[in-house]
Amino acid sequence: MSFENSDDDLGGKKNDVAAISLVSGQAESDTPLYQPLDDRYIRLLKLLPGSGPDPIQIQLQSVPLEDPGPYTALSYVWGDAEIDRRTIYSGDTEQLSVTANLFHALCRFRDVSETRTWWIDALCIDQSSISERNQQVRMMLEIYTKAEETVMWLGEDGDPNLEMLFKVAKARHEYARSKHIIELPGGKTPVYLYSNDLESMKIVANVRDRYASRWVSEDARRHYVSPDSDPKMVTVAYRDLETGEMGETHGGLEYVILALDFDKSRVQRAEKESLPDFCTFLLEAIKPAEFDLTDAQCIGLLHGLDYIASRPYWRRTWVIQEAIVSEKATLVCGKYEIDFDVFCTVYGYGRAIGLDVKNVVLDDVRIFDVRSSLKMLMQVMTQPPDQKPINFMSLLETISHIGFYRARGQSKQMRDLTLGRLMGVFGGQLATDPRDLIFSLVGLLRHFSELPSQLHWAKTSIDYSLDVQAVFKNAAKHIVDSYPKHRIDNQPRRDYILSFVKFDPSKDTSLPSWIPDWTSNRGASNVLFAEDEPQIDTLIEYDANVQDDNLVLSGHIVDTVTMSINIGQDENFYNEVDLYNIVVEQNLGTRYGSQDARFEAFWRAIVADNPIGMRVINGGDFASLKLESLRSWITLCSENCQKLQQIWPHRLKFRRTLGPMIADMKEKNKQGESLPQILLDYVPMETIEELLKQENDPVWSPTEAGVPKQFIITEHGFFGTGLPGVEVGDVVAILAGSGNPWYLRKKGEHYIVIGRGWIHGLMYRDDEYHRRGWRDKVEAIRLR
């Protein structure tokens, strides 16, 4: 069995730490650098002072994990050990060889005058001792939990937009913090505004005095001591703050200082506006220059985000645990650094908890509102050739998930955490040792989950004596056994065992088809088969068990595939229009009723009820927004199909071949270029001239049409879609616990899993097929 991974620089802990060596060539265990560790002890690294060309000097010290003292943990990618090695020193003579990435990190964090204490896996663990490595890996979660801070080192900075990227995040978060304080109820605690910009400070003081008695309560005024003795500090509010909250003690009086950089033009504009009260003025006046962005600035930030999100660091599986459990996490890229939680609130895919932070991705770019963001995204896509394409959206998802789980963990909201849920979110990470794709997440279960089944499994699951197949099988069996028999909410689940499976006939693996090969990238199927509100997952009571290599699952075989056509990545809908003509000519899909109903069923199947280009996400009831977007999509398809009939009449079947040529010719004719001879050989000149006079083909709304997929028709006339691999003769099954039908292939006495599907007429509880009833046809389906 082969589990190959070309990204060896991303590896798991065991392989990350294995590459360090002594330049002298002596065996590590023979040197005083690594003495045997007592039980529950770790080593800490003393990074000695130095600067510039000074050699990196370290010392190692053994300490008990129960009381290690203050230290900082480094989270990083080991890097390619074969390309670039650097030398550091322990004592006067002992030399150690490390990768360039770790060397740059040591240079970055070395202080000029003070010794700093770190925990760095590659240097703090004896590479020659397998038993020590196993022991230390099992304590990894505690090591990062006990650290005062975890530094998330991304490597050297290399994008001109990074300075602005970090500056915008810090400024917006600081404004949100200030806004939160200013909007608190009135009380006794003074809030000061501090700035070296005396001109702006004077405006603030004058506007405050203009509102006179209304800006502070009588109760607070009795506690007010002295009015603005320092022109750099202006009293702007009195608020009800709990003792010690966001403040300091000074002369026995609790106070808060807000130190912000003014945007002078904004302060001056706010002074001239007629605002209802001083608080409203203040909230406008202290907005930073980074609060409002131009399109050009947004595009620059997207490039900076792409650079950050595409760093190899985020693909490394151990990063997940290291970042989530750390009390304080600091993101560092070259000379730039920022609190990781602050970064996530401004650039993540989720809203900040507690603070009203203006998010660049959600509020400026409005990435999930396709209509609003399309203009900007088109500008990004048409950047000069020397600018690499931006693909930050999928990469940023990992960063956002880490930030989300950090926030939930800190607020004690992960008591129901399961391995399946973790694998559903982070199962796409990479590791040199495939077993670490599972083992790297076990610590999170032990740290956060309070479910007995999860804790019991987590205590015994890390075992490097098992091979990859055994580890994957154990994890899959645990997910099957611990999957809830009853859904308690209406939220889609990410821990259904088959949702991790990707059919790949070219991959050489002896794993049963129902056991996920977590070394495979699962692709874009989550978008194609979006389960907004799963409905059919409870039609069959969940009953599943593992028998040897078989998964025995309750289910119902619905139908058989009679047509499976690859519609590829066709953004112009050539294949889709041709397919619909075949449907009409062969009178397929009559089960849906009228011609209009069949038309609707076909186009809804094409996008799996997910026409994201039609959906405006601006609040409101999600179900009604989805219904509205579907109606808009069907209307658009109908209008476009009618227009195509007018443009191409009897030649519509040639559109797939001639359409791109005609569009290209129209453009080239403006430049006076001749027509291609290959076209003249097959199409009369008068036909070409007629087509050139016609309108251009209609523009279709952005959808997931670019995702490779199969169009499916079943024996009983259902329309559906599936990912590549579905063949004629495969069956459609409804399986207990899943919100989607599945394509299965009969092999003797069992089935193999081909993939998840979307079948129009089987997706919702009120579909006619489900209303008719088929409970007597439920059977135990054996998957292998």
TrEMBL record:
It comes from the Eukaryota. InterPro entries: HET, HetReg/Transcr_Mod. Residues 71-172 form the Heterokaryon incompatibility domain. Pfam families: HET. This is Heterokaryon incompatibility domain-containing protein.
